[in-house]
Amino acid sequence: VIEIGQPEHSKVTTCAYCGVGCTFKAEMRGEELVRMVPWKDGKANRGHSCVKGRFAWGYANHKERILNPMIRDKITEPWREVSWDEAFNFAASKFKGIQAKYGKDAVGGITSSRCTNEEVYVVQKLIRAGFGNNNVDTCARVCHSPTGYGLSSTFGTSAGTQDFDSVEDTDVVMIIGANPTDGHPVFGSRLKKRLRQGAKLIVVDPRRTDIVRSAHIEAQHHLPLLPGTNVAVLTAIAHVIVTEGLVNETFVRERCDWSEFEDWASFVAEPSRSPEATAIMTGVDPKELRAAARLYATGGNGAIYYGLGVTEHSQGSTTVIAIANLAMATGNIGRSGVGVNPLRGQNNVQGSCDMGSFPHELPGYRHLSGDAVREQFEAMWNVKLNPEPGLRIPNMFDAATEGTFMGLYVQGEDILQSDPNTSHVVAALSSMECVIVHDLFLNETANYAHVFFPGSTFLEKNGTFTNAERRIQLVRKVMSPKNGLEDWEVTLGFAKALGFEMNYTHPSEIMDEIAALTPTFAGVSFAKLEKEGSVQWPCNEKQPLGTPIMHMNGFVRGKGKFMRTEYIATDERTGPRFPLLLTTGRILSQYNVGAQTRRTDNVVWHEEDRLELHPHDAEQRGIRDGDWVRLQSRAGETTLRALITERVAPGVVYTTFHHPTTQANVITTDFSDWATNCPEYKVTAVQISPSNGP
Ligand code: SF4
């Protein structure tokens, strides 16, 4: 006799929310998921979980989920449900027609950091080998692309340096632009445990996040900088380290290019870069900044953890470089307890970047311009590859409004909600002749789509995700896809209709191809993942069981590279019309634009996004807690309820963006990182005023 709720069978799989990569035992009764039990042997979570991974999986059964393919000729027409074959043929004939009329480069695609490595790989392969161009980009463009640029330039590889276990040996934790309590809760708890054991804490963040002061934890130093001044603050920290003789000269001489170090040291030592000279600009007390710099440089093993508060700026890449400079100057790299650790937002941001989703790089971050690299892929794929880099997402939108980019395949991302400058995205999508949305729900982007490929959830597919510590873990199918096909099979169906066949019968075969083509993945296979539980790349002949800590005996690029970090203020300035600075973040129970978590019971914890503002700013405007306020920027306006709090400093306001009515990206500007085009979501000049509601 089976009791109600009693599981019949189970499988271990990986959470599909954040970059921590917790593993769970999915307990099933037939095809019904009964519960998700945190897996005690999970290397990233060791039996822990948060309210998203544990409870927020009900979206898989949500009534709004689309299970049948749909097509329409015009976006003004109603959708027509069709068979998979009809949808594939319709999409293929549209894309072929566009390429015949506008040229080969008039189509492209966007891969998803929510999908598996194998699913991302086949989309980029379809674009490069099937479409015949390199117009492939990833949703990581709008989050961690500056991490790729900054860490590749300085260390030689686009990834965090440590495993999560490394924090056990850390003496000083520096958190920059991240809120691990809400954004990466399981690792956040681990950080807090280490802090309770006595590690010291420095927080660089405009907002007093929970970790600054919570049970048994009080940060030694909180530097509440003005949004947009990261580079000035980190360069001032470097100034203190250099001018007070705190550089680890032995490490720098052995491991880094000395002449580049000398150039950097003379640059940061200039008096104009001191904490005192930059205090008015950054809003940071110079005494606190000096004390924080001394603590990081002399307090033992120093580890830096950072998030989107670093990358989503016009100087996002410069900020990542500034962080790398600090770690090299103090010798905090290449052993347990130290390092530079980007906290990745989505479950597979690391993987989607590793899989060749950038217009200039093939899988494994190998540049298209390398003849030998291209030849290796050409031999395996049996095609001739175009050596010219393709378009990034913002360039695709620009080309669409100019009439030269007419077809887009969007895998698992609601670009209308997640990309900046909503009106420009609308104009771009409206200009295209065929937009394919491949997703679970009819999202906002689907309003402008001609083809809808229903997607499968992480519970309905096999594959792998790669977490923030480069850990590759299996995603195991615990139920049949409700839409009939796993996502990689959908891409293969579309490719076949286009005349480009990819013959795999299981995602493990896709991983075998990735391993054959990508030196850092050469030792990865599903069989090894089954046996070992997980491996961290690089995983190859030299390190068959993977690499928990990178750069131990030398940087991947050879010598570590110091680079100057000139602070250039964003063009998004405050002034009489827009005197406040808006920045954004997340809460624990919800995830990004809420497409999944809002369709689960987690919604009871969060009914609306609120605008946090300081009591001083509220009083000046006659706003009381809970009042409706109108939030205006140069780009647009929206309406939210006020939450009056001293978590934010006077002059700074803050909101989350989990609910579609918040329309945060109607407000944000279209400024972006100089190197990668990552949007500047974290700094918007705004004005607020009382309102009667939306
Ligand atoms: Fe999932 Fe991240 Fe929560 Fe772990 S911490 S359960 S990976 S959302």
Automatic annotation (TrEMBL):
Keywords: 2Fe-2S, 4Fe-4S, Iron, Iron-sulfur, Metal-binding, Oxidoreductase, Repeat
Extent of the signal sequence: none
Keyword Metal-binding (UniProt): yes
Ranges for domain 4Fe-4S Mo/W bis-MGD-type: 8-64
Statement: the UniProt record of this protein carries the keyword Metal-binding: yes
Entry's family note: Belongs to the complex I 75 kDa subunit family.
Name of the protein in question: Formate dehydrogenase subunit alpha
Organism: Tardiphaga alba
Residue window of the full protein shown: 250 to 943 of 967
